[in-house]
């Protein structure tokens, strides 16, 4: 009798559930104010204060990328797009926290970098056999989708982060309380 999965599949499932669940929870904070979050309005005000404009649209995009990408990663569905979207959101968060150094206890970018790396790694590696992608015959998890999803996300993220950086460096009043409301 053969098993439907091996250690690699089980490891990918655990990674997807852990990283995807954390990402989805952070997205729910932004979108709905769940788990102690501030919802679209509060997160939008924060995003606006740190140079991500328009704030409400930025909060919505970040929340959807985190919640949607995280939930899809946890399910193992549309893994290239889900991982790329979540990684892009985490790159935006890491850019915000970079002035504080690496370690998260000082407000640094360690945590979003780790989540973003996990999401991008899952996009590249795939979800394993214990996933909806596998159950559905990988219809939304094709090899060609990986570089396309990552390239599109990288281009959009680079544009958004560059625009924010220009706003912050040309108007020092743009720097708000970094990290206080931005949960990742």
UniProtKB/TrEMBL annotation:
<dbReference type="InterPro" id="IPR032808">
    <property type="entry name" value="DoxX"/>
</dbReference>
<keyword id="KW-0812">Transmembrane</keyword>
<keyword id="KW-0732">Signal</keyword>
<dbReference type="InterPro" id="IPR051907">
    <property type="entry name" value="DoxX-like_oxidoreductase"/>
</dbReference>
<keyword id="KW-1133">Transmembrane helix</keyword>
<keyword id="KW-1003">Cell membrane</keyword>
<dbReference type="Pfam" id="PF07681">
    <property type="entry name" value="DoxX"/>
</dbReference>
<dbReference type="GO" id="GO:0005886">
    <property type="term" value="C:plasma membrane"/>
</dbReference>
<feature type="transmembrane region" description="Helical">
    <location>
        <begin position="71"/>
        <end position="96"/>
    </location>
</feature>
<keyword id="KW-0472">Membrane</keyword>
<feature type="transmembrane region" description="Helical">
    <location>
        <begin position="144"/>
        <end position="163"/>
    </location>
</feature>
<feature type="signal peptide">
    <location>
        <begin position="1"/>
        <end position="24"/>
    </location>
</feature>
<protein>
    <submittedName>
        <fullName>DoxX family protein</fullName>
    </submittedName>
</protein>
<comment type="similarity">
    <text>Belongs to the DoxX family.</text>
</comment>
